[in-house]
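FAQ
Q: What does a multi-component entry look like?
A: The components come first, one per line:
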Amino acid sequence: MNVLARLYYRYKKLLKMLRLYLLIAGPGIIVMVADNDAGGITTYTATGAQYGFHLIWFLILLGPVAYYVQEMTVRLGAVTKRGHAEAIFHAFGAFWGWFSLLDLVLTDWLTMITEFIGMTAALRIFGVPAWVTVIGACLLMVWMVVQGRYWTWEKLALLFCGLNLIYIPAAFLINPPMHEILRGALIPHFPPGGFTNELFFLLMANIGTTIAPWMIFFQQSAVVDKGLQEKDMVGGKVDTAVGSVLTVVVAIFCIILTATLLPGQNINDAATAAMKFMSINKHLGACLAIGLFDAGFLGAICISLASSWAFGEVFGWAHSLNYKLKEAPWFYAYYIFVLVLAGTVVLIPGAPLVLITLFVQVIAVTLLPAALVFLILLLNDEETMGEYKNTLFQNVANIGITAMIIIVSTLYGISALFPNLLK
Amino acid sequence: MIVTFFRNTAQTVRAINQRYATPHLKTTRLVRICLGMLRGYLVLLIAILVFKFIHSL
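Then the predicted structure of the entire assembly, as tokens:
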């Protein structure tokens, strides 16, 4: 009887913890799954097609990298109750504040264009014209935010996060070689041919898609908007950890799909891979296309919100998803403005979309190191963080990760500017 | 109307600059070194971008 009572008590405690976690969960999962945006899916499909299962271990290593960086934003947001843009203005003054804000706006806008490119390319496979995709996506994204409740927006965004997992059942449809997948996942090694410049470029691209500047701004602002407190920090960290696992799982399943069906092929974008899948298996092609649209959609809602929150924090506008349209007109106007502006560029005939995609990589390089350095400095400020400041282990891990990301993203940016330099 | 918009924006920007004129982070030696290195890094990146721009003309 005593054992039964204890088991029941533990069951109830576990249930209570799970309920609490479900209340706190959201920002971490959304930001991590949205990290697998249209550009990310393209990178993973290219990686799988070019190098098979050989780089799965590398993607697994990127999970903790993303977790350690994003976990800092949870602590900073919960303790300071400020978004990242406001925190930079407050801590480092107007110069660094404006630099970060304007760089974020430019990076976000350019990245938004790439998300719309992904969405239009994905639905074009089903015969949907680009203008219908752009208008439809914009309307859906506006509808999601004008509900006047952060909770509603978050749950809708989580639904789209669930759709991002479509690659998992798709991979099971094709009976991938489990032995090769396990070897690629568990034994770190380079593909046959060794460490070439092409491999280096693809590794850099994979790291580049793992951490983006908008993610730091988005998650911190989302934590503040959701109203997470210091006591919710453990839940917030678990949320981020779950998100980082999901992001790696989706990336791995993307690789499995192209590595199994399109081995050795040169894939430049995910839409091309989806078209090729269509000729092999219609359902698979449809899965990849839906996944690509969803990735672009998730990326677009998070990126446009990151900018709107940042502007609202600095300019002092009412900037919460808990406000109705009338209560926070500038916040919503800016959000809609960014969406419409990015969507319109995709529809302009002859717009330099390739150049824009290239430019995103270069501009992101200017913002990412600054955002990471600011994050670490803020997390080490005892006056701001108190008992939640970085521990020695966190500093060693985060400084190491930041140094690696700065070096790699700089090389990536330079190689985007001078493609022949590393060949 | 456009003039009013720009005038209001300029006023808001001035107010933001005043509000955040003083950095609140304790300026230790480490912070100064980090910010100095960041400035150097950004200047280098801008120089590369300018070089690329001139080179592609």
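Q: Is there any commentary attached?
A: Sometimes. For this entry: The longest helix of chain A spans residues 282-315.
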